[in-house]
Write a structure and sequence with these properties.
The longest helix is centred in the middle third of the chain and has 46 residues. A hairpin with a 7-residue loop joins strand 10 and strand 11. The protein has 14 helices and 19 strands. The strands form five sheets. Strands 1, 2, 3, 7, 8 and 9 form a six-stranded antiparallel sheet that branches. The N terminus and C terminus are likely disordered. The protein has 527 residues and is an alpha+beta fold.
Length: 527
């Protein structure tokens, strides 16, 4: 399930796999749409086309006077292709402005992306800025000079999505008579067949995620079709888009979980719960050692496959026998497919690291009964230069950028607010304000003793947000006496028990009602 955030509402999407007997017809629809979009992009790749597509109207309405609809293409299919082309051109318009700025001032390629965002392009994401910086660096390194942005290679649409935003309505568009209930999904999709176009009826069972969104009061918006190409062939999905307005009431909470992002081989983040009266919980460390270990193993396997492919390639070039060359080529193709598969697993595991971290933070806030989470404002933070190649690849700019976005999206659905605080100097001083001595990854205070730097940073973040009178730590082993005042903050053992209970409830939900009753009865008897 995907999530997209807006200011006053949350937009969620859910993929539903379409039957395989439609693959032939959907393939023709996607290829037709791909041809239309690429031909339109070719004509719009100039200054005049950029200006036409950048008007305040809907994209397809701005471009409709420029293109004549082919007689063999239905009007709704043509309008949807124009809408997609217009959106691509509008995104390229934003990229053009940033590219021309950085290309005219090559020194900006050396700036951190967060600094470029803050001073020149506050509306763009750091990842987008980093991508443009790399593009300009490549041109400089290859000594390529251009006089216009349009001398660059224009984007090519791969044909992996089909929009329906240009339809007159959700019920009477490309998906005719679309009905989504808690039991079934019914629709008719218009696809090419022979020389004409026909309606194909589809009936699907409603997934549990969609039923949950309907019960929560989400409204259905314009859906879309998506195509995924795998080693087993093409798979097509109906992507249902739901929207719900959310009203946030700003209020100062009495306690907040405070999270300091410190990705490394040992941990992803450190946190604690800070109360307004000055009490602080013991540290909570969010770790992902197993996932990082898996990624290391996959990286080694990919490196080994690359070396084998290189050796086989050299052998193929040296030999002159046709049969031997064909045999070696088959081996190279097999190893190349295996390498691609392992690289895909690595990318998925890297995403899993981010998902696990954000899920644990949300569960921590829910377990403590708190509706506000404090994190550091990552726009103030430079990405560290790790010596380890794995860390450099795993925790690069994308991790810092996606962390806050993903956490806000998940928290919004759970009714939890996320607030950002300037993290400047939070890990350089004790939470009491006294000067400290640094000893590796620890800070030594003359009053409070030896503390982890990341834990101290998380305390200072919560302190800056709540501004309590004085902080009183509830007790940390081997640092300060454990006889602190009682607090409503959950202990680590209680928190872990809650997380295990949530996980067990998730496992039970996978079984039927009868099986769940038997399992629970067995647990009660054993107790």
């Amino acid at each position: 399930m995907g999530r997209r955030k807006t200011e006053n509402k949350i937009v969620l999407s859910c993929k539903v796999k379409l039957p395989k007997h439609l693959n032939f017809y959907l393939h023709n629809l996607f290829e037709k749409n791909k041809y239309l979009v690429n031909s339109q992009l070719e004509k719009l790749w100039n200054e005049e086309g950029f200006k036409k597509a950048s008007s305040n109207k809907k994209a397809w309405k701005s471009l409709e006077p420029l293109f004549e609809r082919p007689p063999s293409v239905p009007s709704r299919v043509f309008r949807n292709s124009l809408e997609l082309s217009g959106r691509i051109i509008r995104s390229q318009r934003e990229r053009q402005e940033l590219f021309e700025l950085i290309y005219s001032r090559p020194c900006l390629t050396l700036w951190p992306e967060w600094r470029v965002k803050r001073e020149f392009s506050p509306s763009q994401s750091p990842l987008f800025i980093l991508n443009v910086q790399r593009q300009v660096k490549n041109l400089i390194r290859r000594n390529v000079r251009i006089s216009s942005y349009f001398e660059l290679e224009r984007p090519e649409f791969r044909g992996d999505v089909f929009l329906t935003d240009a339809d007159d309505s959700v019920l009477d568009g490309q998906f005719k008579k679309l009905k989504v209930s808690e039991e079934r999904i019914e629709l008719e999709v218009k696809v090419p067949e022979g020389d004409g176009w026909v309606w194909k009826k589809v009936e699907l069972e409603t997934p549990g995620r969609v039923r949950g969104l309907l019960r929560e009061g989400y409204t259905l918006k314009a859906p879309l079709l998506k195509r995924d190409k795998t080693h087993r062939g093409e798979e097509y999905y109906l992507v249902l888009v739901f929207e719900k307005e959310i009203k946030e009431e700003e209020k100062r909470p009495d306690s907040v979980p405070s999270i300091d992002l410190c990705p490394s081989m040992r941990r992803l983040a450190a946190g604690c719960v800070v109360e307004r009266n000055g009490k602080v919980s013991r540290p909570i460390y969010f770790k992902a050692e197993r996932v990082v270990r898996k990624i290391n193993l996959l990286r080694e396997e990919v490196s080994y496959l690359k070396r084998r492919i290189d050796r086989l390639y050299l052998e193929r070039e040296k030999t002159e026998k046709t049969e031997v060359k064909e045999k070696l080529q088959r081996k190279i193709d097999h190893l190349f497919r295996e390498r691609k598969s392992k690289e895909r697993k690595m990318r998925n595991l890297r995403k899993e690291v981010l998902e696990v971290l954000t899920n644990e933070i949300i569960l921590t806030a829910k377990a403590s009964g708190i509706d506000t989470v404090v994190i550091e404002d990552l726009s103030f933070k430079e990405v560290p230069e790790w010596r380890d190649k794995t860390l450099r690849w795993l925790f690069s700019t994308w991790f810092y950028t996606k962390f806050s976005e993903r956490l806000k999206e998940k928290a919004k659905r759970e009714g939890i607010r996320v607030r950002e605080v300037n993290p400047a100097n939070t890990s350089k001083g004790c939470f009491c304000g006294r000067e400290v001595k640094k000893e590796g990854h620890y800070l030594i205070c003359s009053v409070h003793g030896k503390y982890d730097r990341d834990y101290t940073a998380s305390i200072n973040l919560g302190k800056r947000y709540l501004k309590p009178p004085a902080l009183e730590v509830g007790g940390i082993p081997e640092t300060v006496p454990s006889g602190g005042a009682s607090s409503s903050i959950l202990s680590p053992s209680t928190l872990m028990a809650y997380l295990k209970l949530v996980y067990c409830y998730f496992l039970l939900s996978l079984y039927s009602q009868q099986v769940r009753t038997r399992i629970l009865n067995g647990v009660v008897k054993r107790c």
